[in-house]
Amino acid sequence: MPREAVPAPVPVRAVVVKTEPVRAEPQFVPEPEPTDPPVDRRKITRVVKQVLKSRPGRTSIVVEDLHTKRVFRFNRGEVLPTASVAKVDILMALLLKERWDRLPKAVRRDAEIMIRYSDNKAADRLWERIGREGGLTRANKVFGLRATTAVPGMCVDLYCWGITRTTADDQVRLLTYLPRLRDGGVVRRLMRRVVPEQKWGVSAGACAGERVALKNGWLKHVANDLWAITSVGLIGDRYAVAVLTEDNATSEAGIAKVEKLVEKVLDEFRGCPKG
């Protein structure tokens, strides 16, 4: 098993998690809004390049308007680590083969703390339950992911699911599959209930009062001490957003870059007061 990366150290504290029943939501069916103007891709590309001018590192961002199918892609083919955003893929792979209401209570609890608290041990257990990289690969074929590859083996001292390689295009494609997933509403609800200290990233593009469902990832490479910072999510059940970055000097710098990109790109899709 390669040992090329480890997750960011997270302060250890005792957490008592009160699990609540998570009920499946009605499937979201977007309504077309043909009056929205076309996306000026050249202009947004210039805006993105301006943001990145003082923020080095590999970066990819994709935003899709699920109502109108307007889309913006920057470095769409860049293959980067998922870090903890892989946990959404793991949960969706689990729900593809098992119904939420038939899962054992302990497994549902693992799913909840994996998404809401980004608990790595819970992710390890669910990784085993779906059949490790083989199970994820089979699920990703159903989801239509074309460039996402998981590392084989057991996750021991490495969280190997976290060095799954992916593209922003694939991550948006995964989000757009949620309405077709039998218990996709469960996934969205858990992503909306991420703990406050982890609600950075995609949320920077939300208008005041909009609901955001997101999952973030942070990973420090052992080889060079640089950070992979990632964020994926849904803004108002309308905008699917994925930002993948690598080679950030610090986690704070990576988070700031992700948030500035999301804010600027969403401003070009629509202007609104921020929450």
Please provide a written account of the structure:
The protein has 275 residues and is α+β, with helices and mostly antiparallel strands. It has one domain: Beta-lactamase, CATH 3.40.710.10. The chain contains 8 helices and 8 strands; from the N terminus they run E-H-E-E-E-H-H-H-H-E-H-H-E-E-E-H. A 6-stranded antiparallel beta sheet has the order 1-6-7-8-2-3, with helices on both faces. Strands 4-5 form a two-stranded antiparallel sheet. Helix 4 crosses helix 5 (132-143).
Quick tags:
275 residues, 35% helix, six-stranded antiparallel β-sheet, Beta-lactamase
Topology as a string of helices (H) and strands (E): EHEEEHHHHEHHEEEH
* CATH class identity: Alpha Beta
**Percent of residues in β-strands:** 15-25%
User: What is the terminal separation in angstroms?
Assistant: 44 Å
List the helices and strands and how they pair.
Blueprint: E1 5-7, H1 41-52, E2 58-65, E3 71-74, E4 80-81, H2 86-97, H3 105-116, H4 120-130, H5 132-143, E5 165-166, H6 168-177, H7 184-192, E6 212-221, E7 227-235, E8 239-248, H8 251-269
Quickly describe the structure.
By secondary structure, this protein is an alpha+beta fold. The chain has helices at residues 41-52, 86-97, 105-116, 120-130, 132-143, 168-177, 184-192, 251-269; strands spanning 5-7, 58-65, 71-74, 80-81, 165-166, 212-221, 227-235, 239-248.
